[in-house]
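One such given next:
>
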Amino acid sequence: MFKYIVKKILMMIPMLLLISFIVYFGLQLTGIDPINFMVSPEMLSSNKENVEALRQSLGLNDPMIVQYFRWLGNCLHGDFGYSLKEGSSIASIIAVRLPYTFELAGYSLIFSAIIGVGIGIISAVRQNGIIDYVGRVLAVLGQAIPQFLVGIILIQIFCIKLGWFPSSNRVSPDATNAALDAFQHLFLPVLTLTIGMVAVLMRYARNTMLDVLNSDYIKTARSKGIPEWKVYLKHGFRNAMKPVLVILVFRIPMLVGGSVVIESVFSYPGIGLTMTNAIVSGDYPVVLVTTLIIAAAMLICSFMVDVLNALLDPRVRLGE
């Protein structure tokens, strides 16, 4: 198992390097010149010699491959550079924004797991009942409607028409109750991400539980006179949760990717909104770092899925 984990970790390194390489050269080909953010238009036209000297001192005249490895080396030493738009350290920007994204994704994951698995199990146990029918309809709608559209609908209803929740930001400057203010700002973004996750987990938990309940060992347990609640909880739920747990972890990368869109819809100051604003403004050093962080988060989540699969099914690691 140790060799399997080490192998997976080593495979992540070239993948992350390849992603950084593609993103770096892709942004270089856009023609964005950092000098335009550092020097006024008047100086660009009147002091071309000084501008060229500045370009030379910053290494912007070096081949792109040299610039890439210089940037990569700086990143490995913890120097992510500076934002062209704000002028502040990218490391300080990430330190402030990244916890907000983790907070949003974490709450969404917890609530979607509790609600989705709970309704899915109840739907399987009470098959063809009211909860089952309603849950199946909601699951189809939750998967069919794009998350950004769900977010816009929630803003229209709860922010504009009812005025119950703020439509943007993470905190209010004049808030007197910090906990209540945080809840109000987080509620709609978390709800938007949760709806899509609940739809997937609900259907998968229901189908998996139905398969387990139709298994021979469940029929044997019932024939021995074991109480029904014990059959559901001890024999059914425990065995149904193994594949559901894999799906839950497998959805984490999609949750991180979805937070980029949701943060833009709600103007939530996380890493996703930071990347979106950087793309719009041409702040490519920020785009590079934020893209690398999101890619690393997705690779780590994929690694967790592989390890979990190997723990639950030894044939996976033996086959490797």
